[in-house]
Design goal:
Layout (H helix, E strand, L loop, with lengths): L10 H20 L5 H21 L8
Helix pairs in contact: 1-2
C-alpha cells in the first residue's frame, strides 16, 4: 500500500504506514537474495522514509 493512495490518514496511522514501509525497504536493502540494483533502490527508499519519519515526529499521549 502506497502512502499516495487517496485514503486520508491521521498522524499516528501515517507514522505506522511509514514505519511499515521502512521495515520492508530495510529487508530488501539487506537481503542477499536481491540483486545490486534492487538493494540500491531499497537503500534510497530507506533514506527517504527515515527523513519523512523525522519530519512527522512522534505523537505522545499525555494524561493531564
Amino acid at each position: 500500500m502506497a502512502i499516495s493512495d487517496k485514503k486520508e490518514y491521521g498522524i499516528n496511522e501515517y507514522r505506522e504506514e511509514l514505519e511499515s514501509q521502512l521495515f520492508e525497504a530495510q529487508l530488501n536493502a539487506d537481503s542477499p537474495y536481491n540483486d545490486g540494483w534492487t538493494q540500491e533502490g531499497a537503500k534510497k527508499k530507506v533514506e527517504i522514509l527515515k527523513e519523512k519519519l523525522n519530519k512527522v515526529g512522534k505523537q505522545l499521549k499525555l494524561d493531564l
